[in-house]
Amino acid sequence: MAKAAGASKAAAKRLAAKRAAAAPPADETTLGRAGRMRWGALAILGVAGMGVAAYLTYTHYADTSVTCLVGHSCQTVQKSEYATIAGVPVALLGGLAATALVAIALGRLGGLPLAVEWASLATLALTTASVAFAAYLTYIELFVLEAICIYCVTLACIFTTSWLISLSESFLARDRSPEPG
To answer: What is the pTM of this model?
Structure first.
């Protein structure tokens, strides 16, 4: 009887070891509190960016005036030749970037395997490109159009904040990555 119980315990240990080997290490798939806060903040910033971009995209296609809090600068920017690229509103591109940010952040929060592996790099690349494009557009606003759109500034701030968070996440993810063998 004792021999059967010992064999049963050994089999249970082998099964537990097999399951542990098959599952990825917890530190790679699960996020701590700080990680959840960073990815949650990225998702919230992305939703805010989607809202601003949706409003600007709507005003473009509806051919309505942008409600500007200061003067008529928003309308000047929105009606300029720089407001579209190949007929596509720049605001729509910003909305797509914000949507991608939300999707990546939610995938990482949900622990999706592809997101666990690539979310930090994808977010860093996306936000870096977004900040670079926002910097270009801000230059156009300041020095070419001489008009500032508060909505454009808001999107630039959203993407800059997202970039800073993704930059910190990228460095923190690198520190957690296993050393190449």
So the answer is: 0.79
Query: Three-state DSSP class for 109?
Result: helix
**CA 168 to CA 173: how far, in whole Å?**
9
Query: Domains of the chain (ranges plus CATH)?
Result: 33-175 (1.20.1440.130)
| Dihedral sign computed on CA atoms, order 45, 160, 52, 115 | negative
In the chain, DSSP assigns E strands to 84-85, 88-89
Please tell me whether residue 15 adopts helix, strand or coil conformation. Answer: helix
Contact 31, 109 (CB under 8 A): yes
Q: Element (H or E) spanning 148, and its range? A: none
C-alpha span between 108 and 114 (Å, rounded): 8
Rounded Cα gap, residues 159 and 126, in angstroms: 9
Length of the chain: 181
pLDDT in tens, 50-101: 999 999 999 999 999 999 887 779 999 999 999 999 999 999 999 999 999 9
The amino acid occupying position 111 is: G
Q: Angle CA(51)–CA(169)–CA(28) in degrees, nearest 5? A: 115
Give the CA count within 13 Å in the CB-facing half-sphere of 101. 35
Token pair in block for residue 82: 């720089």
* Burial class of residue 92 in the structure, from the number of CB atoms within 10 Å of its CB (0-12 exposed, 13-18 middle, 19+ buried): middle
